[in-house]
Amino acid sequence: NRRIVLASRPEGEPKPENFRLETVPVPQPGEGEVLIRTRWLSLDPYMRGRMSAAKSYAKPVEVGAVMEGGTVGEVIASRNDRFRVGDIVLCHSGWQDYALSNGQGLRRLDPDEAPVQTALGVLGMPGMTAYTGLLNIGQPKEGETVVVAAATGPVGSAVGQIAKIKGARAVGIAGGPEKCRLLKETFGFDVAIDHRAPDFADRLAQACPNGIDVYFENVGGKVWDAVFPLLNDFARVPVCGIVAHYNDTQLPPGPDRTPQLMGAVLRKRLTLRGFIVWDFAAQAGEFAREMGAWVKAGRVRYLEDVVDGLENAPEAFIGLLKGRNTGKLLIRVS
Ligand code: NDP
Fold first, then answer.
1. Does residue 322 share a domain with residue 262?
2. Quick check: is 289 in a domain?
């Protein structure tokens, strides 16, 4: 059983030496337990937070413990009446080849319904993040302008496509010309803008002649700086993530712009609301039905970036925080 543990806490950008690959015996299921062989491991930006000891909405991974992560696996031994050998399940067994479970929190997946790994992407946590954050907080209306960055990723791409389904104009922001091409050709964004272009802020302003009604915040940094002056009165900002800052070790230099931000929140009557997908856990059924139907009908499309081999997870994860992935980043473990 190979597993990747947190070897040390990163300062700034994670490095390969913050991870360690270990080999331990494959565990045997006790009464009521199942043994799961990991097929797919999801790599997600939130894992950077788990590597850090800073206080957050979830507990950090302990140094020496297996890195946390959502997985899809196959039951290969069962002493639990609810699961049979051969069942494919969604679990949270982390960066390892095998794991035991008492069945709690496991969800059986139907391979005939959808490719099983989509339970980690468009039909799983990231898709539900886009769906619940956009519809509950963003509340896009017909004809409004919705802006999202990291827009080829599993969250951003779903945000843009759901915005279109609701009749809004979708402006996508991504890194580089190839990702911008995908935004328009694969995901149907009305406009695609490269945040690495030197005149990025001007291009964004040109793309939003009527201002911005919904900004789905995934990144922060210079994208937020360019969006902020364009927000309309009563604009809604679901604050989902600030991936541009996850490796920060200190606040940026410069004047304190808090009064400017609070002034705009007041004068423009902005709604900025942070959320964690599980705040909307009660909407999981509705999400599964509606998103499942959209994906089947081809109205919501998705991209996967598949990396083979558990041993390559650390490098792939380090790349995710820099935009080296294109689409939902998955490790094919077996
Ligand atoms: P992605 O697969 O989109 O990966 C992150 C992307 O962020 C990169 O590919 C890169 O895309 C972009 N990025 C990284 N650094 C910068 C930067 N400095 N400026 C602009 N863009 C940058 O990730 P997900 O779709 O899984 O997640 C998107 C966001 O949603 C993250 O912030 C994540 O933390 C958050 N999230 C929040 C949840 C919640 O419950 N609140 C749940 C799930 C995700 P590019 O090359 O286009 O720049």
1. no
2. no
Three-state SS for 147?
strand
271 lies in some domain: yes
> Residue 208 belongs to what domain range?
125-279
Q: CA-CA-CA-CA torsion for 133, 136, 140, 146, nearest 10 degrees?
A: -20
Ligand 1: atom nearest CA of 46 is 34
Helix axes 125-132, 284-296, angle to 10 degrees: 100
Closest by alpha carbon to 148, among 220, 248, 45, 255? 220
Q: Both 130 and 34 in a single domain?
A: no
Q: pLDDT digits over 175-192, tens only?
A: 999 999 999 999 999 999
pLDDT in tens, 105-149: 999 999 999 999 999 999 999 999 999 999 999 999 999 999 999
Mean pLDDT, range 287-316, rounded to an integer: 98
Q: How confident is the model at residue 332 (pLDDT cuts 50, 70, 90)?
A: very high
- CA 101 to ligand 1 centroid distance, Å: 30
Question: Whose alpha carbon is nearest atom 31 of ligand 1?
Answer: 241
Pocket test of ligand 1: the residue of 56, 243, 300 to mutate, having most ligand atoms within 8 Å of its CB, is 243
CA distance 312 to 292: 31
Q: Do 134 and 116 have their domain in common? A: no
Strand partners, 115: none
